[in-house]
Amino acid sequence: MITVKDIANKLGVSPSTVTRALANSSRISLKTKKLVQRTAAEMGYVPNAAAKTMRGEENSLIGLLIPDIENNFYAQIAKAFSEVCNSHDFQLTLAVSDDNPNIEERHIRQLVAARCAGIAIVPTATLTQQSVSLLASRNTAQLIRRNSALNTDWYGINDTDALRSATNCLLDLNHRRIGLICGEPALDSGNDRYQGYASALQARNIPLDPTLIMRGPPRTRFAQAATNRLRALSHPPSAIVAAGAGLSEGMLNAVATWSKDDQHAFSLIGYSDSSAFSWWGGSGLTAIALPIHQIAADLCGKLIQLARDKTSRLAESEDYLYDSHLILRGSVRPYKDISGSLP
Questions:
Q1: Domain coverage including residue 131
Q2: What is the pLDDT of residues 29-41, one digit of tens each?
């Protein structure tokens, strides 16, 4: 590995001169800085990140901590973050918590130790106190989910309106028994989505039926089982809304195992659009589309700006709320009872 001393020996200058030139110090002439920087590039010199960390220097790392990398939604977020970081000559460091607060704490500790310039986190519902304390030392922002223990900016979706819109779409098509697959009550995002669903029904004086509401971990396996439970009810719903990206995948996994008649007996709405949804089932899945790239660009861009300005965010946290829109496809149809007539 090429070192500062190697560059100094090649140029016949002191190592301290090379170090200052690489750091763009005003104490070094422009001519010398250009010579040192050009020589370093030609020799393949890479700065020692560990040494910078030991000196207490910030670096060009942005940390992104998400709960699930297999979830297409979070994969899209990671890709968008990577694109923004690349465009600003920053490096993305990705960590996955698996919604486990202890794993989450370990990753946070490592990101802080690496002196990441900023950290974006989709927090678990039960952040440890150590995680809260560690994140307080970094420029941090919460993404999608919000944990009140963190005094940070939050970038999220107006989920109440999103689910209200999806539920109203089905109500307008005369569906009255609408199943909901939603995140557990411990998650604020799950509660916001549940409230949107519930408020749409209540506005039309339709009582909530607890047998139609499936709440649990935002995982594909849970949603697959929940979808099959809804189908098996003695009085099943005529439509199902999956209020999460992983939950949508689980719902579709379940439906794919059903007979064609059963598949067409239910109207379906998913959360977070993807290219696969556009052709699912031949006519496509109606989905709540989210501005993922815009959120990532705004959040990641803010962290990079703070890093470059060498400033900390304001003491008062801010919420940045983004709207979604419903993409209508063939998975949603007007309600008909068994006899084929409208109610």
A1: 61-157+292-322
A2: 999 999 999 998 8
